[in-house]
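We emphasize that the prediction below concerns an isolated chain of 186 residues; any contacts that depend on oligomerization or on bound cofactors are therefore not represented. The input was used exactly as deposited, without trimming of termini.
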Amino acid sequence: MSQWQDTMEALVRDRERALLSYAYLVCGDPVQAQDLVQDALVRTFARERKGLTAVKAEGYVRRAITTTFVDQYRRSQRWQRVQHLFRPDAYAPDRMGQVEAGSEVADALATLPPRVRACVVLRYFDDLTVPQVARTLGIAEGTVKRYLSDGLGQLELALGPLEDANTADAARAPVASRRSQEGNER
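Result of the prediction step, given as a token string:
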């Protein structure tokens, strides 16, 4: 056998329990501790190191246990932040339960492109004005108006005539008819 194999066998034979205990202290899970020790042994003995004794190898293995655990933790944290991008069928929990939008409205909003949807939600759910929506999103007011027009058009196709649109038209009609009557009287 080569020297690195002898060193690894001596380390595992004499210090396996201590290494597992150390890994358990690092991660808190006995199964993960075994995996960490195995990964650390592979990392330590994957390449030849001149003059590696069992005592020095234990230091390398302990360091590898710690770095492997930290790397796995960081990877899992990154994955948690982006996993929703890879699972389109999985729905995130509804943190906005207080928002009173029927499921039909929510489904219709889901069909809108992201910027159009943001404009519609900010304008009609958050009651922001067009200039406020423009400042919030960092786009021009004309662009906001265009997105609102497109969004309302798509929502009307999905939901039918919108109440607010009908109410606004009805409110404008008497004003227009009063103006025409006033013009005829003069």
